[in-house]
Design brief:
The chain has 405 residues and is of the alpha+beta class. Helices cover 65% and strands 7% of the residues. It has helices at 2-13, 25-57, 89-121, 127-141, 145-156, 194-222, 229-246, 271-297, 301-309, 314-344, 356-368, 371-400, and strands at 167-168, 176-179, 182-185, 187-190, 251-254, 257-259, 262-264, 267-269. A four-stranded antiparallel sheet has the order 1-2-3-8. It has a two-stranded antiparallel ribbon with strand order 4-5. Helix 3 (89-121) packs antiparallel against helix 10 and helix 5 (145-156) crosses helix 8 (271-297). The protein is globular, with a radius of gyration of 30 Å.
Length: 405
């Protein structure tokens, strides 16, 4: 009873908190955020409206109506159907964006694979292998990318043999041909029942994922390593192959052939694409190699020694022990390298590759004007792609971060 009275007395003795609009921390936080957002919005509105008035006073039109204007120029390399005099500048923007994404996508894949390989070779116990990997990194990382792009374009791909002396990279099958006009390759022609083969491949991939998940779970529970490499390869190869032959091999190839002064059939990649792809891949692979090397060195040597002491092979030690612990240190610089690969693809304008900068921000701008809209859209394109890549990799980075217990 006495305790209850004491609590009541204490409650009565506490002063009542008075709400003060200017002193409350939560209110001030929201108020200043809204004030800042309002000032930024007003500044952007003032800047945009003032610019529009100045352009109108000089007789320069604004807006995005030019997107529907017919474009009168053609482009050498395109992934969609486009006819000069029929297609619009919207089509030109899409063509440039797709060309940029295409070379960036393949360059990211190639640079990542090559960078991991070279990064591991940098730590090799073989003196010659380690020094060759070091020379690769130091030469290509410390040479300006623009110089490398021009070197590959002017010094390699532009001096390849002419069409009549085409190099057959498929050893006589004429599926892959290389000359000074680019890389020509055969394209598939799918039959009516080919979808069954594709379905079988999808089923095989899903089955492999399930097998791998169960094998990993079993290893975590019992420590037993289940060899699943050969069964998985057999499943991915045999199931689609059996389906393919059972459905009558519904696949043909459109093989490029010389007619007149050029190749007809198949598809091709211009020398500018090849030069840009090789330069981006090698340049960024050198940086990724150093990130991989630093990440591996960040793992305590005791982890490697412990793994070797229980009988793991060297390649198993790297794949199961070292790389998983090194990933948190490797992924952040890799994110920057992937973003730089997309942005550095804009240097393609130096060799005439039809990317978004060359087609949209250069040719289109020179023909139709609308500098603010065109430059702004180009910047928005690169920013959007960079934010998407960064967002996905940051999610993955959070998942692989080591959590201390």
């Amino acid at each position: 009873m006495a305790q209850a009275v004491d609590k009541k007395n204490k409650a009565r003795l506490r002063p009542k908190e008075k709400f003060n609009f200017f002193q409350d921390q939560r209110v001030r936080s929201v108020f200043y955020q809204l004030l800042t957002a309002g000032l930024v919005g007003w500044f952007l509105y003032y800047l945009g409206s003032n610019t529009a008035q100045n352009l109108e006073a000089r007789g320069m039109s604004t807006g995005f109506g030019f997107f529907n204007t017919t474009a009168g120029f053609d482009t050498e390399f395109k992934l969609i159907k486009y006819t000069p005099g029929v297609g619009t500048y919207r089509d030109i923007f899409i063509i440039g964006a797709l060309n940029t994404l295409l070379v960036s996508f393949f360059a990211i894949i190639a640079s990542t694979i090559l960078g991991f390989f070279v990064g591991i070779l940098r730590l090799s116990n073989n003196w010659l292998v380690a020094k060759v990997a070091l020379a690769f990194v130091e030469i290509f990382r410390n040479t300006p990318l623009l110089i490398q792009i021009i070197f590959w374009f002017m010094g390699i791909f532009s001096v390849l043999p002419v069409i009549k002396k085409t190099i057959d990279l498929s050893f006589g099958a004429e599926f892959l041909l290389l000359n000074n006009r680019g890389l020509y390759f055969a394209t598939p022609i799918f039959g009516n029942l080919f979808w069954l083969t594709a379905l079988a491949l999808a089923i095989a991939i899903i089955a492999v994922i399930i097998i791998r998940f169960r094998a990993k779970k079993r290893q975590e529970q019992t420590g037993e390593q289940v060899k699943i490499l050969l069964p998985c390869i057999a499943l991915i190869v045999l199931l689609p192959a059996i389906t393919f032959f059972a459905t009558g091999m519904p696949l043909a190839w459109d093989i490029p052939s010389i007619q007149g002064f050029n190749f007809v059939g198949g598809a091709s990649l211009p020398p500018a694409f090849l030069a840009l792809f090789v330069a981006l891949s090698i340049y960024h692979a050198a940086s990724i190699a150093e990130a991989v090397r630093a990440g591996i060195l960040s793992v305590n040597k005791g982890q490697t020694e412990a793994a070797l002491s229980i009988g793991l092979e060297q390649k198993k030690v790297i794949s199961l022990v070292v790389i998983p612990q090194a990933r948190p240190a490797i992924i952040p610089p890799m994110i920057s390298n992937w973003l730089d690969t997309v942005k550095n693809s804009s240097l393609a304008v130096a060799i005439g590759y039809n990317d978004i900068v060359s087609l949209f921000m250069q040719t289109t701008l020179n023909q139709i004007g609308h500098a603010l809209e065109i430059v702004g859209l180009t910047m928005a394109f690169y920013m959007t792609i960079s934010l998407i890549i960064s967002g996905f990799l940051n999610i993955y980075n959070k998942r692989v971060q080591l959590v201390e217990r």
